[in-house]
Amino acid sequence: MAQKSAAVVGGGIMGAGIAQVLARNGYEVSVREINEELAEEAEERIVSGNYGLDDAVEGGYLSEDEKQEVLDRLTFTTDLDEATDGTDFVIEAVTEDLAIKGQVFRDLDEVTDDQPLYSNTSGFAVTSIANAVSDPSRVAVTHFFNPVAVMDMVEIVRAPETDEAVVERAEELVDELGKTRVTIDDDPGSYGFLANRCHAAMREEAQKIVDEGIATKEQVDKALEDGYNLPVGPFSLAGLGEEWD
């Protein structure tokens, strides 16, 4: 069987989480960062960050030998060409800035051939990202949720131009990683896909209720947690340092 391989561009919280999950599922993963310091931080984040490999060992989910096997499948580089060469697909996970993502995809267009290019954006339209490459048909979104190691959902978003084989490869990947997925169509007129748009509406209404003096933040959280079995209310979630990823 051919070795599975992937490139992750960006080694921040999301990129490190995606790379870790891929490596734990047998992929040889190249993580590309823009300088050596950030590449080292990405490796440290995977090993000893929240929900990293050390936590997995401590929790009994990995042995020390298995942890080392995962690390052996990870490489860190500042060379985009080297990171993406011969990989099955590429996942972009840089900061949520459309101009930066556009530049990354223009660079990817120069150094990759025909492998699928996925973005982990939490809300930018696929079309706005795919316009940066000469062949938009190979671009789709795979929006993982934070923390990637424990959150099950992945939103797969396709533009009208996206090749169906690119979508199917993303669906196969999510299934392979043991996660759940929804596959939806692009909506260039708005930011956010499915989950974030629904959650944003809930947060906005919750804040409006507090601002109008109808209830306290604690009461809103209690009503939503006990009334709808939410694991945590919107204000408590924000207090835990929630990130819109």
Spell out the key features of this protein.
single chain, 245 residues, alpha/beta, eight-stranded mixed sheet, 11 helices, 8 strands, disordered C terminus
Topology:
Layout: E1 5-9, H1 13-24, E2 28-32, H2 36-48, H3 53-58, H4 64-72, E3 74-77, H5 80-84, E4 89-92, H6 98-111, E5 117-119, H7 126-130, E6 139-144, E7 153-158, H8 164-176, E8 180-185, H9 195-211, H10 217-228, H11 234-239
Parallel strand pairs: 1-2, 1-4, 2-3, 4-5, 5-6, 7-8
Antiparallel strand pairs: 6-7
Helix pairs in contact: 1-2
Description:
The protein is 46% helix and 16% strand. The chain has helices spanning 13-24, 36-48, 53-58, 64-72, 80-84, 98-111, 126-130, 164-176, 195-211, 217-228, 234-239, and strands at 5-9, 28-32, 74-77, 89-92, 117-119, 139-144, 153-158, 180-185. Strands 3-2-1-4-5-6-7-8 form an eight-stranded mixed sheet, sandwiched between helices. Helix 8 links the parallel strand 7 and strand 8.
Strand segment count: 8
- What structural class do the secondary elements suggest? alpha/beta
Largest sheet: 8 strands, mixed
Question: Strand portion, in percent?
Answer: 15-25%
Helix content: 40-55%
Give Rg in angstroms.
19 Å
- Our count of helices gives 11
How are the strands ordered across the major sheet?
A: 3-2-1-4-5-6-7-8
The low-pLDDT segments are 240-245
Q: Report the principal-axis shape.
A: globular
Mean pLDDT: 94
Give the SSE order as H and E letters: EHEHHHEHEHEHEEHEHHH
Distance between the termini: 34 Å
